[in-house]
């Protein structure tokens, strides 16, 4: 389904017919399908909303730059369209950044949050890294960022053992419109929520791959320490896209967390 939100056509899917709402938000360069396994598991007992972020998948990709506030307003608009007054939130990487932004902008919207392989802020030195990635995409298209992205996102043994997953993720990366990638890179590079997230009051589970070099375990611990009562779960033998590299461990952690709130 697609709905116009803030002048942008937003693609979304709803799974399940009963239970609390769970909203799922994907990483940069991905789309709703990065959540295929967990979304269908959760749909057995929940109503699940997953959507393509502005600039990704089947959502529109207007010229950027974008802001995290815009991306959060887009997600909020989709939720309003569906009459969702309260939802659990599961966001990975950029999806976790959007979730933190929304929790601060719309207090009471989230019944809980899972913040996976994400950050609440980057050091100034990271600006050059994001500039380099954007330059690669401008000059060579999305194909130019594939190899570096896969190397950051998955451990070497997993990349060698699962060419099927590498092909799926490569398709998601190359299917991301360059304007959408650039717009979201600008939003992520401006992330600066470290001094604000202590105001988040909903139950929170922070998840991170033990080998995530993009949003490190230390970053995850910092988030968990700043949000009152937050839990931390470290996924063994996983890098940045922990839900796809170690789905059983990741999904079980989410199921346990949600069950503890019931």
Protein model, in words:
The protein is an alpha/beta fold and about 260 residues long. It has a single domain, classed as Rossmann fold (3-Layer(aba) Sandwich). It is about 45% helix and about 20% strand. It contains eleven helices and eight strands. It has helices at about 35-40, 70-80, 95-105, 125-140, 145-155, 155-160, 165-175, 180-190, 215-225, 240-245, 245-260, and strands at about 1-5, 10-15, 20-25, 45-50, 85-90, 110-115, 205-210, 230-235. It has an eight-stranded mixed sheet, with helices on both faces. Helix 2 (about 70-80) crosses helix 3 (about 95-105) and helix 4 (about 125-140) runs antiparallel to helix 8. The radius of gyration is 17 Å and the shape is globular. The model has no long low-confidence stretch (mean pLDDT about 95).
What's this model, at a glance?
This protein has 262 residues and is α/β, with parallel strands linked by helices. It is built from eleven helices and eight strands.
CATH homologous superfamily (4th level) name:
Alpha/Beta hydrolase fold, catalytic domain
Largest sheet: 8 strands, mixed
End-to-end C-alpha gap: 30 Å
| Strand numbers in spatial order across the main sheet | 1-2-4-3-5-6-7-8
Please tag this protein with its features.
eight-stranded mixed sheet, 8 strands, Rossmann fold, alpha/beta, 262 residues
Layout of secondary structure:
Elements lengths: L1 E4 L2 E8 L5 E5 L10 H7 L4 E5 L16 H14 L5 E6 L1 H12 L4 E7 L9 H15 L5 H8 L2 H6 L1 H12 L3 H12 L14 E6 L7 H10 L4 E5 L6 H4 L1 H15 L1
Parallel strand pairs: 3-4, 3-5, 5-6, 6-7, 7-8
Antiparallel strand pairs: 1-2, 2-4
Helix pairs in contact: 2-3, 4-8
